[in-house]
Amino acid sequence: MSRVYNFSAGPAALPLEVLETIRNDLPDWLGSGMSVMEVSHRGKDFVELAARADATLRELLKVPDDYSVLFPQGGATMQMAMAPLNLSAPGDTADYVVTGSWGKKAAGEAKKFCDVNVAADASDKNFTYIPTESSWRRSDNAAYLHYTPNETIAGVEFHFVPDGDVPLVADMSSNILSRPVDVSRFGVIYAGAQKNIGPAGITLVIVRNDLLGRARQDNAHLMIWKSYADSDSMTNTPPTFAWYVADLVFQWLKNQGGVEAIAETNARKSSKLYAAIDASDFYTNPVAVDCRSRMNVPFILADAAPTGNFSKSRSLLAWPILRVIDRSVVCEPPYITLSAKRRLMH
Ligand SMILES: Cc1ncc(COP(=O)(O)O)c(C=O)c1O
Questions:
Q1: Minimum-distance ligand 1 atom for the alpha carbon of 80
Q2: pTM of the model
Q3: Would you say the CB of residue 192 lies under 6 angstroms from ligand 1?
Q4: Second CATH level (architecture) for the domain 258-344
């Protein structure tokens, strides 16, 4: 068997132990004579799996009791619509801090359902920094403030949680479970699964219970968080296979020493990569040092026009940087994009 080091955009690598467990379990899950994809989601075994996934996730992130953990489908993109539909009434204003393309997309989606005030926008410097919090133009009565703690494409990560007394809504798709987080500071945390949780097809939403009553009642049942909270996320047939893999990943994370231990690994790996880029005179990382992402590291030519295609031979010049990094960091042969390259370390 040959496994590559997969640092591509899109779905991320799963731990080999998890894949091996899946392979062993697949034809005959828990002696049922069926795969997990074929059993009833209402059966005892699957209900136990769902309860364990909830409990392990709560333990990993120290989720307070007054929060619900939901597993809808639809990915993070669906949550970009569910946030305004569950937290605002038509005519309400929601604040958005836009530090990258995902935050921009979330603000664009919310505009269909409520008034959006872009409180800060880092597009003036090509999403390479986080505007200082004191410069944000927040509204007086915002229904909530939305931001993206890790912008996957720009490689910009918040190393602080914004202040304020309106509910904070965070799209943590690309840094959930990569570091400890004080869940009690947030109204809602959401994340697509395919980076740090498991396969695409399931989504994680952590929502403070007092916010569950705010949904628009003319909303579709599946677009209301409370529908999931009231049904243990079985409001309709759930993505059982993705949920099963998420449960295995949560257990794997726990066995690694939990989120605290994973955070140390991520800090070590990313600082090696940044050190190599900083030492290079060929590549540079364009992101302000205080908000460099531990998950996604873009690097561009230090001294070249910012547009145009790399030739394959030029892209191979990336290897001197990559060779100094330990094997757990480096991955597939360099892929060719426009002038930017990126290593994803999920
Ligand atoms: C920060 C962030 N938000 C949203 C998305 C979109 O997620 P999904 O494809 O699950 O809708 C991604 C995908 O990579 C992401 O990184």
A1: 4
A2: 0.91
A3: yes
A4: Alpha-Beta Complex (3.90)
